[in-house]
Design a protein that fits this description.
- It is a single chain.
- This protein is an alpha+beta fold.
- It has two domains: 1-61; 70-117, no CATH class.
- 34% of the residues lie in helices and 19% in strands.
- The protein has five helices and four strands.
- It has helices at residues 9-16, 38-52, 64-68, 96-101, 104-109; strands spanning 26-30, 56-60, 76-81, 84-89.
- It has a two-stranded parallel ribbon with strand order 1-2.
- The chain is globular, with a radius of gyration of 15 Å.
- The mean pLDDT is 90.
Length: 117
């Protein structure tokens, strides 16, 4: 198993800009938005989308700005029910009315999606 622990925006960007063949099959990233300017989050999400076309990318976040850059099929909400984790992915159709007025992060912030403490 090819495992790497990287921290900081420079390391993260270096990882994501490698030739895709050099990346592990699954990349886990925890709260990549920490310390980033909001515009840099937009650039970072573009890198995520490029990598996710060929590799499994799992990103955990508490950032409304980061989630705002995603579509419903990009987001899996994790909740705790009866001492077990539950996972839910929403479709565009399920959120159609909300998406006319709000971005994904704003919908999440309003607790429509769940995933709240």
């Amino acid at each position: 198993m090819n495992t790497k622990l990287l921290t900081g925006p420079i390391c993260l960007t270096t990882l994501l800009l490698q030739p895709v063949e050099l990346l592990p099959d699954t990349v886990l990233i925890d709260e990549p938005e920490l310390g980033l300017h909001p515009y840099a989050i937009t650039v970072l999400v573009d890198l995520f989308k490029q990598v996710a076309e060929r590799k499994q990318l799992i990103v955990s976040t508490q950032s409304v700005e980061l989630v705002n850059e995603l579509s419903p099929e990009d987001v899996i909400v994790v909740d705790q029910e009866n001492d077990a984790s539950t996972f839910r992915r929403f479709s565009n159709e399920e959120l159609e009315g909300w998406l006319e007025e709000y971005a994904m992060g704003e919908i999440w912030k309003r607790n429509i999606l769940g995933g709240r403490p």
